[in-house]
Specification:
Length: 120
């Protein structure tokens, strides 16, 4: 539904695939988290660890932010992060390992938000 273009430093939203205001907001927040992360320096053992952390954060602050049940929210973040990481870093098995290694620290990182987002 959207992506962050690091080369041109822009967020691109594919409007044909966005069906609601909520979906637009979640996609925009997800991609803006990637844009924000592109400006940060982090200490990761590989680029794939950096990608996995970004996907965990973007999912936690984007499309999974309003899931009330902690176990369902964790599952939403996990599955989305693994799926996205796999597309960049060589498959689902490797992506699961990467997400597992970064999940606990990255899911707590809500920057640039002071607290979890509440949308209108």
């Amino acid at each position: 539904m959207g992506y962050y273009d690091g080369r041109y430093k822009r967020v691109v939203l594919c409007c044909d695939n966005i069906r609601s205001k909520q979906q637009l907001e979640e996609t925009l927040v997800h991609e803006l988290v990637h844009a924000f992360d592109a400006t940060r320096k982090g200490k990761f053992s590989s680029i794939c660890h950096l990608i996995a952390c970004g996907e965990v954060r973007a999912s936690a602050l984007g499309q999974c932010h309003d899931i009330r049940s902690p176990s369902h929210r964790r599952k939403c973040i996990w599955e989305d992060a693994v799926r996205s990481t796999a597309s960049h870093c060589g498959g689902a098995d490797f992506a699961m390992t990467l997400v597992q290694e970064v999940f606990d620290n990255c899911v707590k990182d809500t920057a640039p938000f002071i607290q979890p987002t509440t949308r209108l």
